[in-house]
Design brief:
The complex is a heterotrimer of chains A (76), B (326) and C (277).
Chain A lengths: L1 H10 L21 H15 L5 H6 L3 H9 L6
Chain B lengths: L6 H10 L1 H15 L3 E5 L9 H6 L4 E3 L4 H13 L3 E7 H7 L1 H10 L4 E8 L15 H6 L4 E4 L4 H13 L3 E7 L20 E4 L4 E5 L3 H14 L4 E5 L2 E3 L3 H7 L5 E9 L4 H9 L7 E7 L9 H7 L4 H15 L1
Parallel strand pairs in B: 1-2, 1-3, 3-4, 4-6, 5-6, 8-9, 8-11, 11-12
Antiparallel strand pairs in B: 5-10, 7-9
Helix pairs in contact in B: 1-2, 2-8, 4-6, 9-13
Chain C lengths: L4 H25 L6 H5 L2 H11 L14 E4 L5 H10 L5 H4 L31 H14 L6 E6 L6 H12 L5 E7 L8 H4 L5 H7 L3 E6 L3 H9 L8 E6 L22 H10 L4
The chains are: A mainly alpha (76), B alpha/beta (326), C alpha/beta (277).
Chain lengths: 76, 326, 277
Amino acid sequence: MDKYKKIFQDSLNISPENFSDNLKYNDIPEWDSIGHMTLMAALEENYKISIDTDDIVDFSSFKKGIAILKKYNVNI
Amino acid sequence: MNNFFTDGNFKLWSMLGSRASLGLAALEISKTNENFLVLTSDVSTSAGLDRFRKQLPQKYLDVGIAEQNLIGIATGLASEGFDVVTTTFAPFQTLRCCEQIKVNLSYMKQKVTMVGLASGLILGNLGYTHCSIEDIGVLRSLPNLTIVSPADPAESVKALFAAIKHKESVYIRLTGGSNNPQIYNTNYNFNIGKAIKLREGKDVLLVACGTMVKTALDCSEILGDQGINAEVLNMHTIKPIDKEQLKKSIIKKKLIVTIEEHNVIGGLGSAVSEMISGENNSPKKISFGIKDEYSKGGSYAFLKKKFGLEAKDISKTIMKEINNNG
Amino acid sequence: MKLDDKQKLSIENFSIKLKKNILDMALQAGSNSAHIGGAFSLADIVACLYSSIMKIDKNNPENIERDRFILSKGHACLVLYSALMEVGIIDKNEINTFEGDDSDLPGHPVINRKKGIEFSNGSLGMGLSVGIGVSIGLKKRKKNNKVYVVLGDGECNEGSIWEAAMAASKFELNNLTAIIDKNNFQQTGSTNEIMRNDNLIEKWSSFGWNCQEIDGHNIDQIYSSLKSSNANNKPKLILANTIKGKSLKFAENKNEWHHSVLTKKFYDEALKDIKYE
């Protein structure tokens, strides 16, 4: 969980104080389409997976991401 | 600046596609270049410039759907010492304002970098008003204008950085969509006018630009399985074409092949033909591209297949040619 | 702003000198013909700009503090070259190369900042867009230089002029002045015959410009319209009613003098018409 949170914070350039588990795509300016791809690239790099396009599109929130990553055998 | 060309960013750019990658490149360039400005004709989101527009509104000008005015204003700004990039969809970036490009950038030599979005066939499902199969051919006949067609999003970023420093105006032709195959995954030397040899080979020379570079690489694999050794050149700069490299690469080859997402008339194929026709013993050449027609529209994959631009079809033709002529 | 008699006389004399220079070049051009009509309709306006309005540095024509003059109706270049000679930026030897081989002064202006020519013009409809780019650039650098763009009335047929007109008000370019030389003729006939384009004041006002209409040969009106301040962050449009071939009895309002040969006979008559002493 800590690793997952850190990936979010680093990719989207958010400080731990400003971060919340309820974070959703487009909630903050940093999580725009570019931020999203930065996040996806970081998740792929860190967990050594390759995320399908459909899942990239579905990955709409911090919490939803946890469910999606299960498909790739990544358990947060 | 070295921190920008990381392997991580190369991967990110391939996921983002060329347009959004250029948006990021523009933000990076602005950090150290206070004269840098980006102008568009009402395409900020499509151009991947949303972030740029929001973070640097004072460096961004939207002139509305008025491409002639776009080039005129860019010229006025360039004459005042600004480093200007203009961008809109390729047909409008090149043909709508072609005379302004001629007078302002070619004749008056005012330096502007123009980025043509979604050139080639990527927007085929919208019909040919939004495709561009003529841009290289038309612009090649304008003096004082460099034409670059990057092979993948990372090369688009390298091209933009190079174009800003280049001595004359540059047209950067973006092809492909957001699922652009990645050719480059780590930093490399990119120089305008210098072709990049991606594969060595002694039998056949494949010269390609833009998204067709990946196609050429795929062809070389298929041909290799059939015992045909293909050299692959990424001719990212169509004008000025790398004559030195071509001179070397055509030696002792059985066949020269050009592959482009452009009319076979006027583009890369024509440029290569022009050059090799002046060389003694230059081999036969086959051009792959769009065969001078506007077909009905369709998806990118459909149109590439229709015009024989898939690696397996190109390879078949090459093999037939080699086998017939030994 | 009012002109005193001395200033006014000075501008009038400058205008006569411009006309003399135009005639010299046209005579020199011989059978190549010259765009005489449209240069003469502009002479009084250009005289005012170059003698009394614009910041010009004859010793350093590229001085960054200079005002900019863009002759979008480039075929009237005779009047521009004349003005550049009168202010001392180019000399008589240079003027004599007009339309000659390898000349820096061909029949449409070619960019040459060292010789006071800001941009290459001649393909109608392009100069205003470029002027807008310059005006935006000057504002970004927080400079107070002014930009003057001269348009033809026929030139206002071009769509690109209206693209530019829209943009100038969007970008709030109060450092930009466009002057329309409304001599009511274009290449093959009157503007009314070829492409009627009336109500220019209403049109440009609706595009967001501060508009004034003047007699383009009345020095007082030309001067005060150029000097008047520009309110509300809007660009300024001066619609100058002029006469093509003004001052030349044989050419006034005669469209064959748009581009024609000036023989010695007409040259001598012209010198009398313009009151050159």
